[in-house]
Design a protein that fits this description.
5 helices; twelve-stranded parallel beta sheet; 13-stranded parallel beta sheet; 3 domains; mainly beta; 290 residues
């Protein structure tokens, strides 16, 4: 794709950006070259606007290591080592990194992100496909994953967490915003946060679930330790905790919401050290043998 002033004008750019483009970038320049020139000139927002207008390409950037002020690339980025960027990393397609990724700004990939070490974003992290890392993920704002999320260590998110499919976190999951997971959620350690947790299928947690507002799963919820919420606890099938289950004051605990009442004995079991206060549906079966 080659750019001309007439071609760019058809996209209705802002007057300042268009004036700079016409003065500094020659007609017929390639798409990625235009992005590179904008980033080199410190006009990262203009580069992001251009990428948003014309979309991704099949180009591949393959390097041993990537260090820069900012990265805006229309295709895929493949790095045998790690990525260290002071500002944003915005890639039209995928990011594959042998080591870790650190960005002072946002990390955005239109498709998958795969890292051999930790992923750290000083802003938001947006992944259009699967996000997989052999270490952990830390973001200072929201984390959006369109496919599966798999992290061998902790996931720490200062904003909301949205996962389109399933999520697996090897250690702790700490989220300050809401958590929304389209399929299942499995966490090896503890789950904590300040928002609500909603999962389309089941939740399995090795440690405790605490600090969240409302807790809701389409299937069952199982925790190795306690399940504590500040609001309501709702499970489509059974509830199980190695310790106690406790909802917020004035809120109820519901098991078997997605099964018929005659099937509660088998499909809406509630296991805890003692009968939960505020149990509105389901059948308490006693302490969980874990």
């Amino acid at each position: 794709m080659e750019f001309t002033k007439q071609f760019l004008r058809a996209k209705s750019p802002c007057a300042n950006g268009f004036r700079w483009f016409t003065r500094h970038i020659e007609d017929g320049v390639g798409y990625q070259q235009a992005l590179d020139q904008l980033v080199a000139a410190g006009r990262v927002d203009d580069a992001l606007w251009l990428l948003g207008q014309f979309g991704p390409t099949n180009a591949v950037l393959s390097v041993d290591r990537l260090e820069a002020e900012a990265v805006v690339f229309a295709g895929s980025v493949q790095v045998r080592g790690g990525i260290e960027v002071d500002g944003v990393i915005h890639v039209g397609r995928s990011i594959h990194v042998g080591a870790g990724v650190r960005a002072g700004g946002a990390i955005v990939a239109g498709e998958d992100i795969r890292a051999g070490a930790s992923i750290q974003s000083g802003d938001r992290l947006h992944c259009g496909g699967d996000l997989r890392t052999d270490w952990g993920v830390h973001t200072q704002q929201s984390l959006h994953c369109g496919g599966d999320l798999r992290a061998a260590w902790d996931v720490v998110c200062q904003g909301a967490l949205t996962v389109g499919a399933s999520a697996f976190v090897g250690q702790d999951l700490q989220v300050q915003g809401g958590i929304d997971c389209g399929k299942s959620l499995r966490v090896g350690g503890h789950v904590g946060g300040a928002g609500s947790l909603r999962v389309g299928q089941g939740i399995v947690v090795g440690g405790a679930i605490s600090g969240l507002m409302h807790l809701e799963a389409g299937w069952g919820i199982k925790a190795g330790e306690s399940i504590h919420a500040l609001g309501a606890i709702k499970a489509g099938e059974s509830l199980s905790a190695g310790e106690d289950i406790r909802a917020g004051e004035g809120y109820g605990i519901f098991a078997g919401l997605n099964v018929q009442e005659p099937a509660w004995e088998a499909c809406a079991q509630v296991w805890a050290q003692k009968p939960p206060a505020g149990l509105r549906s389901g059948v308490w079966k006693g302490p969980c043998a874990m």
